[in-house]
Amino acid sequence: MLTAAAVCPFPPLLVPEVAAGAAAELDDLRRECDAVVGALKASGADRLVVVGPGERTRRHGADSGGDLAPYGVPFPIGPQPPVLPLSLAIGRWLAEREGTVPDAYVEVASDAEPGECLALGAELAGEASAVALLVMGDGSARRPPSSPGRPDDRAPAFDEEAASALARADTDALARIDPALARELMAAGRPAWQVLAGAAGGDTVKGELLSHQAPYGVGYFVARWTPDR
Questions:
Q1: Eight-class DSSP state of 189
Q2: CA distance 161 to 175
Q3: How far from 162 is each of 4, 34, 124, 138, 153, CA to CA, in Å?
Q4: b or e along 130-161 (b: 16 or more beta carbons within 10 Å of the residue's beta carbon)?
Q5: Which of 150, 143, 135 is nearest to 215 (CA)?
Q6: End-to-end distance of the chain based on CA atoms, in angstroms?
Q7: How far are the Cα atoms of 5, 74, 98, 181 from residue 65, in angstroms, in the given order?
Q8: What gap in Å lies between CA 58 and CA 52, rounded to an integer?
Q9: Which residue range(s) make up the domain with 195?
Q10: Which candidate, 107, 124, 133, places its Cα nearest to that of 45?
Q11: What is the rounded CA–CA span in Å between residue 40 and residue 34?
Q12: What's the CA gap between 75 and 10, in Å, rounded?
């Protein structure tokens, strides 16, 4: 049963050692991530699982790690050799900052269909009596005026809708996100958010959005969900 959830972005620049001179630009985002991940630790969950997009859907054990070397700075995270995609590696780094090591990491294929994501979320929530999820997901990487991808005028509205759904813990709205549109807008978080929707199921959940920003033309969200039982 889902007992707590946090949503965080996964830019490599979140790690100060990678950001170097630009580290202070994401200080607020880093603090907000620390706050929601710390709440997961305090939730008393039996199991903490990190969920994030990757090449294919698969599970990684607690002894899995990653490395940020492909992003400019050799920075191992957890045990080596690296097997975790960027999303899960940043998730592990955030968890370790709060003094906890996740029990498992779930990589979700970037092209996974919504039904598959929802079913996976329900499966994860059913694996223990109290499950906490750390859900790693970025919004559109095509936010005007400057972004990693070619700017797209549809991107701000897409991210606003995603932010609203996360703020309201609206599982139906997350489940309805169109994979094709998310792919066109380079919104990497779509499958992980839909896993979260599946984990919450039909429970009444309280949502809180701590942050929605796009400092580098990519939508970053920080949110926490708490089931209202």
A1: T
A2: 12
A3: 19, 21, 22, 10, 16
A4: ebbbbbbbbbbbbbeeebeeeebeebbebbeb
A5: 143
A6: 11
A7: 21, 13, 17, 31
A8: 11
A9: 2-227
A10: 133
A11: 10
A12: 15
| Residue whose pair of structure tokens reads 């499958």 in the numeric block | 191
> Please, which pLDDT band fits residue 36 given cuts at 50, 70 and 90?
very high
- Domain count for the chain, please give it: 1
Over residues 197-225, the pLDDT tens digits come to: 999 987 789 999 999 999 999 999 999 99
| Amino acid at the residue 172 | D
- What is the average per-residue pLDDT within 2-11? 97
User: Tell me: the pLDDT tens digits for 82-133?
Assistant: 999 999 999 999 999 999 999 999 999 999 999 999 999 999 999 999 999 9
CATH code, domain with 77: 3.40.830.10
> Which run of H or of E encompasses 29?
helix 27-42
Residue 188 CA to residue 186 CA, distance in Å, equals 6
Cα gap 49→64, rounded to integer Å:
12
Q: What is the pLDDT of residues 184-197, one digit of tens each?
A: 999 999 999 999 99
Strands 76-77 and 66-67: antiparallel
Is the pLDDT reported for residue 229 higher than 70? Answer: no
* Residue 181 backbone zone (phi > 0: left; psi -120 to 50: alpha; other: beta): alpha
Asked whether the beta carbons of 106 and 124 are under 8 A apart, the reply is yes
